[in-house]
Specification:
360 residues; mainly alpha; globular
Length: 360
Amino acid sequence: MSAYPTLAGSTLADCWPMTRVMAGLSAVPVGHAIDLAFLFPLDGRERNDALIAETRRHLGGCLRAIEIAFRAALQDEAPIAAALDEWPDPLCWPTVCAQPTMLGPSLLAHMQMRAGISLLLRQSGRPEGESADGEAESVLSADDPTIGNALSALALAEGRWLTTGGEDEPLRPDVPAEYFAELVWTAAACLAAIVQRVSGSDDAIIAAFERAGEVLLRRHEEAAGPIPIADVVVRQLGDRADAPELLALALSQRQFLIFIALAARRLRMESAQLADVLLFGPMDQVAALNRTLGGSDSDYVHLLLALRPVRPSLTDAAIVVQAERYQSLHAVQADATVSALRTPAAFRAKLDHLRRVTAG
């Protein structure tokens, strides 16, 4: 029997790689299901050790930062502080590693997307032989008073994601509010369980953690993350964000979040959703997005080259194959695919689920 509760049912989600494995093998151990999902991917997603390590760093770092905040907030609660002082080392991340089913699939998918963006941001420089258009380059100048502050804030936010460190190195949890709430209550549960084990069950302990958690939730600033800041940069550009050269410039300069925000504006999509498709979506969706954006054959090749850190299957030979397929992709087909992506995610996920079930 599995050491962990089954994930079937309550935690199945179309964005988590073990979904289809778990749908048919709900009784297998969680670890085995994850191994199956990466070793025999049904959706074309291969195992990427760098992505796994980066995802764990983001998860562990955010939990560590929240744990530190809880410990500070509960210093005035003498019994709780005394109990936690007996455990000075990190508690939350080791607990989650031992009980990974504490984390929901949506949070994991979001952290994986953050990790993917981090891998892209670690690239630097412009591909050999490329030169930026002078007029377009001036649009993204940090000296521009309309976007200078936002660009500086974006650089700082990206820098936080790129900070090197282990899984227990604190990382600012600049995640959307719903994911922050899950992290907060996960950390609260990990810490409260330890305190109750030391001091015995007490409703006052639960109430104290609840109060501290509510304070953390009220103070949270989800707009501090690099994805929403990139959206701010693009909004502040106004009509200049529609300059034809700007997308290619952002990509060539490895300004991936600016590229995503610009593309999301033109496609009328959310930046986070667009990032997820580019990083982990089927290649036909990636091709459709690029075609709808008006990307040429060479633009598509440059995009695929840029995505390599997250998509290691994009070898030179694979890119040649994808480029040949792209040439036969008509704008009408691409527009239909993108229109489907604009539908609400929950609606699309449930519809896709029903299609898979009826197809079987």
